[in-house]
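ok trying again, last paste got cut off:
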Amino acid sequence: MNTKAADSDAVIQCDGLHFAYNGDPVLTDVTFSIAPRDFVSVVGPNGGGKTTLLRLILGLLNPQRGTIHVLGKSPEQVRPLVGYVPQHFIFDMHFPIRVIDVVLMGRLRGVSRLGRYSKDDQQAALAALGEVEMDSFARRHIAELSGGQRQRVLIARALASDPKLMLLDEPTAHVDTVTQTELMNILTGLNQRMTVLMVTHDAAFVSPYVKSVLCVNRKASIHPTDQLTGEMIMDIYGDDVRYVRHDHPRWDAHQGESSHE
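nice, full thing came through this time. structure:
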C-alpha cells in the first residue's frame, strides 16, 4: 500500500499549490506527496491540469501560491536529476540525426566547452539504449524507426543523465497494444531504482503496473491503485466514463458496481 511520505523523504511534495493562466485557475490548492520508488499514473480530464503539473515539477513554471519540492529542493535545483519524456518529439525527417545522437542530448549538461561528448557520455548513452533494448539501433537514422521504437529512444535519452525521478507525458499514446505492454514492462523495470510518474488517459491499461494513481482535475488526490473505485473516477471525469480494471473484476464507473466479464 502507498502511504504519504514524510516531507523530508518525499520525492515530490506539493503543498497548497495554485497556478493560473491569465487569471484562469488551472490548479487550486493542490497538496500531495510521492514516496521514493513509487510508480504513479497521473489521470484526469483534458484541461484538468496534468501537463501544467508536470511543467511545475520540471521547474518550467512557477506556482503563484503554495510550494513544490522535488527531491527535497526546488525544481530548478534538481533538473539534472529528473528525466523527462515528452508526448511529442518533433524533428525534421530529412535531418540526418542518428539514434545515438538523440540519446546523447540527455548528456548535454556535461558537454565540454568544445562541444564534444566524452567517452563517459558515449558509454552512458549506449548503456541507456541497452536498457530499452535499442543498442543495436544506435547508428540508425531516427526517421527509420517505428513510433514505439522512437518512444524507447526518448526513454533512453531521459535515462542518459542517470535520473532519480522519471516523468513521462503520455508515453503509450499512438502505439499499438503490444508496444504499450513492452513500454510498461520497461518502466516497471526502471521503477526498481527510481520513482516514475507518467501522465496517461488509459487508467485501465496501466492499472496492473502502477502502484498509485494521482487524480488531477484542478485539485489533486493520490490513491493506491488497489483502492481506486468507480466513484473516484466519476468524481474526476464526470458521469459519462467507464473505467475497466484489467487485474480485477470490471468496475463500471457509470453504474458504480462490479461485474465479471
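cool. The longest strand covers residues 24-34. Residues 177-190 form the longest helix (14 residues).
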